[in-house]
Specification:
about 65% helix
Length: about 270
């Protein structure tokens, strides 16, 4: 049994980017400089800016222009997703369906935005939604064979958190707390990581919990359990779900937005 889950360190450029993106007053020039230090982040940003959904009449060739084209808030969200993508690349051998996991993370982030009031907090909502399963990612990255056993137990009927405790002696909520501390996430994002399966006190954590719940209701699996598995739906639909979906343009617009992020992150 694994009783301690060491958190894989972020590469230097990624650690600096994560730290900078947690600062609400980070400037465009500062963020551009950090992105340009990493070829994968740069490629993702340029791919997003030149995509069919956001392309200008002339190609975007600099990170600074890309930030202007797609918007600073969206760019920050994309960088956070790319940083996490670099960690999920270590999950081969875990049995986790990585495509489903990515849809789950992106959909949760987007729905968390829809569940949040308008304002700057929406950037934090997407970030928190994408990062909410960071504990699971850390567990799989450091012990892929053991996490493969978790996946087998969960798909055989054991609740996922219980399967994790059986194999690791801990679960991805507790591992997420370690990761949040290691990556210096602020307290409200840490709460979202730790409490997305239960009751939440903070508004940001509640938005992520709503996003995760609604993602399950819409049939998005989490990579451990496949879409359509009734155990994914731990809580019933709520009256405000329709408002959340409408704020994003409905299920089809949500699907297209997920595709936009996934296309940008191919290069990450």
């Amino acid at each position: 049994m694994v009783t301690h889950v060491p958190v894989p360190p972020l590469p230097g450029a990624h650690a600096r980017a994560m730290s900078l993106l947690m600062e609400v007053d980070a400037s465009l020039a500062e963020v551009a400089a950090v992105i340009e230090a990493d070829p994968g982040l740069t490629a993702s940003m340029l791919r997003a800016a030149n995509s069919a959904a956001s392309a200008a009449s002339t190609p975007i060739v600099t990170v600074a222009d890309a930030l202007v084209r797609i918007g600073f808030r969206t760019a920050r969200s994309l960088v956070v997703a790319a940083l996490l993508r670099s960690q999920t690349n270590k999950l081969d051998g875990t049995g986790i369906d990585l495509s489903a996991l990515w849809d789950h993370l992106l959909v949760t982030g987007l729905l968390a935005v829809g569940a949040s009031p308008p304002g700057e907090g929406r950037s934090a909502a997407f970030t928190a939604g994408v990062l909410h399963d960071v504990g699971r990612i850390a567990m799989g990255a450091v012990a892929p064979d053991e996490y493969h056993r978790v996946v087998q137990l969960a798909r055989s009927g054991l609740p996922t958190l219980e399967a994790e405790r059986t194999v690791f002696g801990t679960d991805h909520l507790e591992a997420g707390l370690v990761a949040a501390s290691s990556w210096s996430l602020p307290p409200d994002l840490t709460e979202a990581v730790v409490s997305h399966h239960g009751r939440c006190e903070g508004a940001l954590a509640q938005a992520v919990a709503d996003g995760r719940r609604l993602a399950a209701l819409l049939g998005y699996g989490d990579g451990v359990l496949v879409g359509g598995d009734s155990r994914l739906v731990e809580q019933e639909a709520q009256p405000h779900d329709a408002r959340i979906l409408a704020s994003l343009g409905g299920p089809e617009a949500l699907r297209r937005r997920v595709g936009w992020y996934r296309n940008a992150l191919v290069a990450a």
